[in-house]
Amino acid sequence: GAGVSQSPSNKVTEKGKDVELRCDPISGHTALYWYRQRLGQGLEFLIYFQGNSAPDKSGLPSDRFSAERTGESVSTLTIQRTQQEDSAVYLCASRGTVYNEQFFGPGTRLTVL
Amino acid sequence: AQTVTQSQPEMSVQEAETVTLSCTYDTSENNYYLFWYKQPPSRQMILVIRQEAYKQQNATENRFSVNFQKAAKSFSLKISDSQLGDTAMYFCACNSGGSNYKLTFGKGTLLTVNP
Asked: N or C end of chain A: which has fewer CB within 10 A?
């Protein structure tokens, strides 16, 4: 079956512009996570969605970051007024129900000039 | 809160030899899960192996095995018969239901397998 997909693969933007990143989880996975990976670093949790419950936004670094998910489908991560420190790879993962393991998408590399 | 520490930023091994990557963690949860993920230059995060904390038996997946020492909060990864394709960043991670199963990652170990 299809894995987690993300688009775009790469995004270059100018400082101050808004960007929107998309994630398509594995069909049937109700839990979805966004992580950020700065160059040479591990992954930092950003936000978590579980079905129709209120999302866990505890990892969002500022109010310029927001995310939405409709039901158990696609999620979008929006960064408003991008700054150079937002440059990173943004990874999305959906969680299976048997072993609680997370399956990752290929990520979006965001570069803010 | 959980923390994961990988103390080896870089390691190298000769092809066909065995290498062990270290990981220690801290958590206040009783039930938790531990994972090793591999990230090659393609940046795709690939699950290598998982361990449920309530299981005493060490997990194994083909050439990959772990040494899980619960009391010491240690979770090392052993790669046997190393292959060139094992060259990648390796991340140790932990999650638990108490934290919505969000993963806490270490900073990673860059493993290079030399021919």
From this structure: N
